[in-house]
Description:
Layout: H1 2-9, H2 19-40, H3 54-74, H4 87-107, H5 109-112, H6 121-163, E1 177-178, E2 183-184, E3 188-194, E4 197-202, E5 207-210, H7 214-221, E6 227-231, E7 234-237, E8 241-247, E9 250-255, E10 261-264, H8 269-277
Antiparallel strand pairs: 1-2, 3-4, 3-7, 4-5, 6-7, 8-9, 9-10
Helix pairs in contact: 2-3, 2-6, 3-4, 4-6
Amino acid sequence: MEYNISNFLSQVYPFYYYGKELKLITGLLFLMTLLFGYFFEPFEVYQPEHKMGYFWITLIHSCTPVFIVFLFLSLKIFPSSKESWTVKKEILLIAFYLLFVGITQFLIRDIIYDNPNNWSLRYFYEEIRNTFLIGILFAFILVPINYHRLNWRNSRNANTFNDSKTNTNISDRNSSYINELEIDSQVILYAKADGNYIELFLNDGDKILKRLTMKNLEEILEPYPNYIKTHRSYIVNVDQIDSVTGNAQGYKLQLKNGSNIVPVSRSMISKFNKKMNS
């Protein structure tokens, strides 16, 4: 049982703490909080202590999660690494975020409620408890939606690449000889970093080991348009891609020799899309 939980927590999880995806999630969170709080009144409401109408109270409570998102962004609390994001890290970040939202809801009680006990431990506990109850409910809704949205988008893009494939290579028709590697540019399927060495996988099934760093290899291959870095440890010859599959984590590239699969990491998807659509 412990092994299964450990495996689950260590699984790679979709990363959306940047750009349009974060804005979309934040907007959905605001609307869900506003509508849910106003129409369902999930917690006890004692109107005589309200300083304003219930709609405005609900609106203020709904703005708090958005405020915390901007606070986290300004303080750079949201993570920047996409590649190592896991279920465990997602759960911990959500819990940390909900704790801050709950504390903020407690701090603004004097603005909303005319209650002499606003600053009591009782209400401190209640605000945090209520925030976690609603937050967990929303997480069960938003997390699967986000996962399936990313999975659908990447799968759709992968199918587009497969449907639009032609016999025209990105590189020149005349194969180029890479002097530094002492090999033809069309012979390489992909390259994989292994410490200070690079493994070059060839289309005849052979493998060559070169003493190079990934940065050195990128510089060598820069003049050749058929090569692109798809992962911190991989560079692939796009002319050797047979098919592309997509999921919430990124793409998987099936190469023409039939046995090799190269990943396209989340941070490289935009660059890969641009290369394949050019």
